[in-house]
Amino acid sequence: MVPSILGFLTRSDDYAFFYAFASRTRRVELQ
Fold this sequence. Notes:
The chain is mainly α.
């Protein structure tokens, strides 16, 4: 389980994309 978590955390690009998508969705919900 640890290797999977580390592998997921190392995906900085994917995480950044997901964070940007989540923040964009939040803006739409707020509006």
